[in-house]
Amino acid sequence: MKTITLTDEQFDTLYEYVDDKVTTIVDASVDYQDSEILNEWEDLFDVHTLLENIKVKFEEKLAKAQAKQPTMEWN
């Protein structure tokens, strides 16, 4: 197992790249009606799932933290 540290911007860039690649692969599989394409990229789909789970957890924590912030009142 490896551990890497990314800034938010780096993570977003990586996630978007992998997400776009996965979308392209899935679309190609549908266009060519070839499920073997999906099997060839199984490891990338695993990475995508991992990144997506991290993204969701981060967004949930961020939403909870923002909900705890006091509401600003303007006079």
Would you write up a description of this structure?
This protein has 75 residues and is mainly alpha-helical. Helix 1 (8-32) crosses helix 3. The termini are far apart. It is 76% helix and 0% strand.
Individual helix count: 3
Quote the beta fraction: under 5%
Oligomer: single chain
Order of helices and strands: HHH
**Low confidence ranges:** none
Mean pLDDT: 94
Largest sheet: none
Structural class from helices and strands?
mainly alpha
How much helix, percentage-wise, in residues?
over 70%
Care to count the β-strands?
0
Distance between the termini: 54 Å
Rg from Cα:
18 Å
Outline, from the CA principal axes?
A: elongated
Question: What are its keywords?
Answer:
75 residues, elongated
Question: What topology does this entry show?
Answer:
Elements (H helix, E strand, L loop, with lengths): L7 H25 L3 H5 L1 H27 L7
Structure at a glance:
The protein has three helices and no strands.
